[in-house]
Design a protein that fits this description.
With 419 residues, the chain is an alpha+beta fold. It folds into three domains: 103 residues, conserved putative lor/sdh protein from methanococcus maripaludis s2 fold (Beta Barrel), CATH 2.40.420; 105 residues, Efflux pump adaptor protein, beta barrel domain (Elongation Factor Tu (Ef-tu), domain 3, Beta Barrel); 140 residues, RNA polymerase II/Efflux pump adaptor protein, barrel-sandwich hybrid domain (OB fold (Dihydrolipoamide Acetyltransferase, E2P)). Strands 1, 16, 17, 18, 21 and 22 form a six-stranded mixed sheet that branches. The chain has a six-stranded antiparallel beta barrel with strand order 2-11-14-13-12-15. A hairpin with a 2-residue loop joins β19 and β20. α4 runs antiparallel to α5. The chain is elongated and about 160 Å long.
């Protein structure tokens, strides 16, 4: 068999289970390599662009040094309205939770027993006065007779003593009448002060005042409102130290009351400190303070929790960045800094005071550097990023442009669909 005939018979031999010849193997290898290269070229795509991150420039500014205390609101007057006599409640004359004026009627108690006592007291007074009148007439009648020695002097002395006893009886009866009038007046329960009244503690038909003065309701004055707080001695001394650097004392500084609302906003009011306790509580090592705030609309109520904020001093030329740019890891603080080459680097920082969502950087940053405030989850140390300010992102969004990584993702999706 000639070599040419053998080569021509190779495909048949291959199908019979024999190995292909060397030229055939070379041809198959070249063909497979070409197919693989074509497939790789088809699947390869451009690398993704650097991730877009929001950056802000580190700026120097004057930062107020603030101190904040957590406490509770209270009324200057929380007056408890109590029953002063034992009686049944006949009427409730106020609307719960509403403002009442001083001397406004609140409750009406059953007066019938007290009217009876007053009538009895008036009768006893009339009887005492009648007896006194008789004693005085006896003295007037016996005195001339005693001067003429027509009667014994003892009779006159007894008549004079009866007059004194009669006068005492009249005074006692008058006191009982006055007491009956006072008890009768207690049946009409009125507001001792103007303010907002709380819920009634008794209902119509209830027996009150039996054995002790029963609590009927409580009235609180709301304007002004008081803020109480207990702060540690260490915090107070630190605040005093900061305030003295500006030549003032803590209790002389104006104070702002801050009440947080559900939507994240704050309700504020300006006031002043009016009380600093004379001594610290030895059990808790705290001092009690009180501030006073106007509350003309009555929104603030006793029992609410609030914060009191004071500005101790102003630190000039401080480096300030948004609080959300700071990351915490194992008790240490760091930020992501974007250099001139647009590469992100992680850098540790030392934090200072916080105010209004911003934080002062004591160490680790310089003015003019750029820090990442949003998009840190897409960043790797030393890798390229595409920094954009919030204004640039807003402008791009207004123009309908998409960030580069979104465009790249869209292109990948379109290519995959075509394939």
């Amino acid at each position: 068999m000639t070599p040419t005939t053998e080569f021509r018979n190779t495909p048949k031999e291959y199908h019979r289970g024999r190995h292909p010849s060397a030229p055939m193997r070379f041809t198959l290898l070249v063909t497979a390599t070409a197919l693989m290269n074509a497939s790789c070229k088809k699947q390869a795509s451009a690398p993704p662009p650097p991730p877009v991150v929001t950056v802000t420039e580190v700026l120097g500014s004057n930062v107020p040094v603030m101190a904040e205390f957590i406490g509770q609101l209270d009324s200057p007057q929380n007056v408890e309205v109590r029953a002063r006599v034992e009686a049944f409640v006949e009427k409730v004359l106020f609307e719960e939770g509403k403002e009442v004026k001083e001397n406004a009627p609140l409750f009406a108690l059953d007066k019938k027993p007290f009217l009876e006592r007053l009538a009895a007291a008036n009768a006893a007074l009339a009887e005492a006065k009648a007896a006194l009148n008789k004693y005085e007439k006896d003295v007037a009648r016996l005195k001339p007779l005693a001067e003429k020695r027509a009667i014994p002097q003892q009779d006159l002395d007894n008549a004079v003593a009866s007059v004194e006893v009669g006068k005492a009886n009249v005074l006692s009866a008058e006191a009982r009448v006055e007491s009956a009038k006072i008890d009768l007046g207690y049946c009409d329960v009125t507001a001792p002060v103007s303010g907002v009244i709380g819920a009634k503690q008794v209902s119509v038909g209830s027996l009150v005042g039996k054995g002790e003065p029963t609590l009927l309701a409580t009235i609180s004055t709301l304007d002004p409102i008081w803020f109480y707080c207990n702060i540690s001695v260490a915090d107070l001394l630190q605040a005093e130290k900061k305030a003295l650097e500006s030549g003032r004392k803590v209790d002389d500084l104006p104070v702002t009351l801050v009440v947080g609302l559900r939507d994240g906003s704050e309700l504020t009011a300006q006031g002043k400190w009016v009380f600093l306790d004379r001594a610290a509580d030895a059990r808790t090592d705290t001092m009690r303070l009180r501030a006073e705030f106007p509350n003309t609309n009555g929104i603030l109520r006793p029992g609410m929790f609030a914060r009191a904020r004071i500005q101790l001093k102003t630190e000039k030329d401080s480096l300030v960045i948004p609080q959300r740019a700071v990351q915490e890891l194992q008790g240490k603080s760091f930020v992501w800094v974007v250099g001139q080459d647009n590469k992100a680097k992680q850098r540790p920082v030392d934090l200072g005071t916080e105010s209004g969502g911003a934080v002062v950087i004591l160490k680790g940053l310089s003015a003019g550097e750029r820090v990442i405030v949003e998009g840190v989850q897409k960043v790797r140390d030393g890798e390229l990023v595409q920094p954009m300010t919030a204004a640039q992102l807003a402008q791009a969004a207004a123009q309908g442009a998409k960030p580069p990584e979104d465009q790249h993702a869209g292109e990948k999706t379109r290519k995959a669909t075509k394939e």
